[in-house]
Design brief:
5 helices, 26% strand, Rossmann fold, 315 residues, alpha/beta, four-stranded mixed sheet, globular, nine-stranded mixed sheet
Length: 315
């Protein structure tokens, strides 16, 4: 494994401060901070050519259409090939819905960290769809949550002086773990007789050991019917054509698992997972492969709309 970053910890008035600080613009306050207006939503899409097999105008366009027409939300569409990679409007948004697949590396880490800091400050929520599990904003958000939790185990005095070393689980980017791989994230503390505490964090890999692209149906089960993301959903619903992902998902334990997904062959996945990051929120919804019309299913669209509203409110 290779050293990714080294930080010096510092105490914060309300819990862990961000260890990697990034300058951010002064965006608009989130929806709960400025009254009862509807969230302003940026639907960001790589717009893979293969999407045309299932969506005439593209997957992101289909999601945006539903949020705009059925949910009456303020929606802006953006593509990776737009100026500023479609992220020039980000400071004026309350939620970003992110779909990416094979062009994750084109987003700079500095851009991802800027997004994470907006989430942390409560200015932005994120809804990551399907293969956005490896998008840089989602990966950096999961790393930030892992870092916060690692530092929260220290006393205030220890946090102020802690030295944090971060490593990757696997030797190259975008490598999937095996079933036998140790879980990530993980943390090891070393407390020498003199000097600061050493915090050795293995960053979350944000992937899983197996997938299957054969379009078999799945059953989505609501685990937390009282959660806002589950509002209006039946206890179970079926996706007729979808890709399979199998646990374990290498992410920090979700604060809430709203949805589980199961396949007839026995695989399962935490397909609707929610995290708090500072004052902001992140939701991951697993379905959404570009060649299957998942977002023609009304329940899948309902999940996304509910997640947008949830993520667009302050934690």
């Amino acid at each position: 494994m290779q050293t990714r970053r080294k930080f010096i910890g510092r105490a914060a008035g309300h819990g862990m401060a961000a260890l990697a600080t990034v300058a951010i613009g002064t965006g608009c306050a989130g929806p709960t901070g400025g009254g009862h207006r509807k969230p302003r939503v940026l639907v960001w899409d790589e717009r893979q050519p293969a999407q045309k097999q299932a969506y005439a105008k593209g997957l992101g366009a289909r999601v945006a259409q539903h949020l705009r027409d059925s949910e009456r939300l303020d929606v802006t569409e953006a593509l990776i090939d737009d100026p500023a990679q479609g992220l020039g409007h980000l400071d004026h948004m309350d939620v970003v819905v992110w779909w990416g697949h094979v062009r994750h590396a084109e987003i700079e880490t500095s851009t991802a960290l800027r997004i994470v800091e907006r989430i942390r400050s409560g200015k932005l929520g994120m809804v990551a769809l399907h293969s956005a599990h490896w998008s840089r904003p989602f990966v950096e958000a999961m790393a930030a949550i892992s870092r916060d939790r690692a530092m929260a185990a220290l006393s205030e005095e220890e946090r102020a002086r802690a030295v944090v070393t971060e490593t990757e689980l696997l030797p190259r980017p975008f490598m999937a773990p095996s079933y036998m791989e140790r879980r990530s994230p993980s943390v090891l503390y070393k407390r020498p007789p003199t000097g600061p505490v050493e915090v050795r964090l293995v960053r979350p890999n944000c992937c899983f050991p197996a997938y299957r692209g054969d379009g078999k149906p799945s059953e989505v089960r609501v685990k937390l019917p009282g959660h806002p993301v589950a509002k209006g959903l039946p206890p179970r619903f079926t996706l007729d054509l979808t890709e399979m992902y199998d646990e374990p998902f290498h992410v920090p334990d979700p604060d809430e698992v709203v949805l589980e997904e199961h396949w007839a062959a026995g695989e399962w996945f935490r397909s609707g997972a929610a995290w708090n990051l500072g004052r902001g929120r992140v939701f991951y919804f697993r379905p959404g492969h570009e060649t299957y019309a998942v977002y023609e299913n009304p329940w899948a669209l309902k999940v996304v709309a509910n997640a947008v509203r949830w993520a667009g409110s302050h934690a």
